[in-house]
Amino acid sequence: MKKLIVFDLDGTLAESKAALDDEMVTMLTNLLSVAKVAIISGGDWPQFEEQVLGRLPEKKRLKNLSILPTCGTKYYQYNKGWKQLYAENFTDEERVKITHDLHEGVELSGIKFSKIWGEQIEDRGSQITFSALGQKAPLAAKKKWDPEFTKRKKIKIKLDKSLRGFSVNMGGATSIDITKSGVDKAYGIQKLQQTLRIKIAEMIFIGDALFEGGNDHPALTTGVECIQIRDPEETKSVIKGIIACLSVKKKAK
Ligand SMILES: [Mg+2]
């Protein structure tokens, strides 16, 4: 029986950097009463507060929720308030190298940007994120920019060469996430297994970027059962199915 449902956030539970909608809030709340839930996103903790935690009304169910910001490089568990279990932060030297190589990789890729909203590179401590159109870009512009991931693949090819020893994965609508090598969503899933004492076979992972090079792809390597979804609407159908299935099994116990 499945005990833990693990979700990506952007493109899976909500649109890029948007808050969960009302229907998703209800569904997640219902899901938390029949299973444990974890969310692993490229976004950092403040992003989770805005998109997810501020939207979940019932504190009593939060002990069933695990939050893994920045692709599993940080981990928070609820116990009378949110507590950070770990953060795999970069050293200063690593930061300088990644930022330098990102600038260079983008330049070498030949991709031009006609308009940018805010900073393109954000240091999230344990992850450096390149947001092609800037941190404050409107969703409509982001959705149009690289729906097939072709532009980001060009940049990723350059970064994979110069940033050996780091994980470079595409996520969100326009972003590339860089973490320490091996510290990615697979690492997050292993940590969930150890912390919650739930076997990988008892988990399901749901994400929109499970393809090669996508930031959900490392999850596949753990052997967890994965469901690729197209958008948050499809995620809702999947959650409905899971709740129905787990509720029947709980009653039959
Ligand atoms: Mg995603």
Structure description:
Helices cover 37% and strands 21% of the residues. It has two domains: 4-88 and 183-252, Rossmann fold (3-Layer(aba) Sandwich), CATH 3.40.50; 92-180, Eukaryotic phosphomannomutase, cap domain (Hypothetical Protein, Haloacid Dehalogenase-like Hydrolase, Chain: A, domain 2, 2-Layer Sandwich). The mean pLDDT is 93. Strands 5-4-3-2-1-10-11 form a seven-stranded mixed β-sheet, with helices on both faces. The chain is an alpha/beta fold and 253 residues long. Magnesium ion binds next to loops.
DSSP strand content: 15-25%
How many strands? 11
Q: What form results from the Cα inertia axes? A: globular
Q: Please name the CATH architecture of the largest domain.
A: 3-Layer(aba) Sandwich
What's the CATH topology label of the largest domain? Rossmann fold
CATH class (first level) name of the largest domain: Alpha Beta
Radius of gyration: 18 Å
Which class best fits the helix and strand makeup? alpha/beta
Layout of SSEs?
Elements: E1 4-7, H1 22-32, E2 36-40, H2 45-51, E3 65-68, E4 74-78, E5 82-87, H3 92-109, E6 121-123, E7 128-131, H4 139-145, H5 150-162, E8 166-171, E9 175-180, H6 185-196, E10 203-207, H7 217-220, E11 225-228, H8 232-252
Helix pairs in contact: 1-8, 3-5
Magnesium ion binds at residues 8, 10-12, 171, 207-209.
Features:
single chain; 21% strand; 11 strands; 8 helices; 7-stranded mixed sheet; alpha/beta; 37% helix; Rossmann fold; globular; 4-stranded antiparallel sheet; 253 residues; binds magnesium ion
